[in-house]
Amino acid sequence: MTTLLVARRTAVAQLRAAEVPDAAQDAAVLLGFVLGVSRADLALMPAQTVLTGAQVDALAAAVSARATRRPVSHITGQRLFWGRSFAVTPDVLDPRPETESLIAAALTLPFSSVLDLGTGSGCILLTLLAERAGAVGLGVDLSGAALDVARRNAASLGVQASFSLGSWFAPVEGQFDLIVSNPPYIAAGEMAGLSPEVRLHEPHLALTPGGDGLDAYRIICAEAPAYLANGGRLLVEIGPTQGAAVAGFFKAAGFARIEILPDLDGRDRVVSGQFFGT
Fold first, then answer.
1. How far apart are CA 116 and CA 124, in angstroms?
2. Domain 4-68 CATH class label
């Protein structure tokens, strides 16, 4: 018989042997996933609870997958973002806590329409629409597989949104109060230094544009004014060393009230600006 205590200790030991960061936390998440309970409920279960054979096998498979540095979200198929659960697959970026800084900044002012460029899982667009009743939104992505994930998340969350396949503004018509994007921004030379979870399992198309990592910002900043209502805002997520360069693109495109905003760790994470026309 395998008890909860033994299963957890075994999982932690296997993950630590594979040099997986946060092994104890990941073991708890995978154990809760296999048992179909939340982390809070798992903590309340008696240590001597006996797992079934099927549960033991499922946990072993999950731990083995994590030991190869497969992301936890790809094993469970879910990731929490701004308090909501989003479906995640290898076709989309894993929603990250630092991206919530963009959500917080976007919600500081009202908006009734939002455009999300490179929507991926839809976590940014759908969160903003869920938080602003009555707002409408469009998510654009170059990947049809990513849009399938975004549509699935919209349905599961009960959020109405539109999605279009294409590169940046190519499929977009009309104007919006708010344009948001978490574009690929990792420089080509930085890819080798990424964690195996990111480098080996997340879509490179969503990670890097090549070169200096700034190409997406050049395009977005230059073209966004044509798609913004008077006084509309543009907010983009950035890498922590890119604030000055991206703010410069905002200024060159005629944006006002340009700000570089930090994440919860104090690193530059979002650049925002407003456009009032010429």
1. 7
2. mainly alpha
Give SS3 for 2: coil
- What CA–CA distances, in Å, run from 231 to 88, 109, 138, 222, 270? 34, 11, 19, 16, 18
CA distance 175 to 172: 9
Determine the Cα–Cα distance for residues 35 and 58; give it in Å rounded to an integer. Answer: 9
| 103-126 pLDDT per residue, tens | 999 999 999 999 999 999 999 999
Instruction: Kindly report, residue by residue over 3-16, the tens digit of the pLDDT.
Output: 999 999 999 999 99
Q: Is 83 exposed, middle or buried (0-12, 13-18, 19+ CB in 10 A)?
A: exposed
Classify residue 92 by its DSSP letter. S
Identify any residues that bridge with 50 across adjacent strands, giving them in sequence order.
Answer: 3
Other beta carbons within 10 angstroms of residue 168's beta carbon come to: 18
Domain ranges in the chain with CATH number 1.10.8 = 4-68
Domain(s) labelled CATH 3.40.50.150 in the chain stretch across 78-275
What are the tens digits of pLDDT across the range 36-50? 998 889 999 999 999
SS3 180: strand
CATH for 78-275 (3.40.50.1820, 3.40.50.150, 3.30.70.260, 3.40.630.10):
3.40.50.150
- Which residues have C-beta within 8 Å of that of residue 43, sequence separation ≥ 6? none
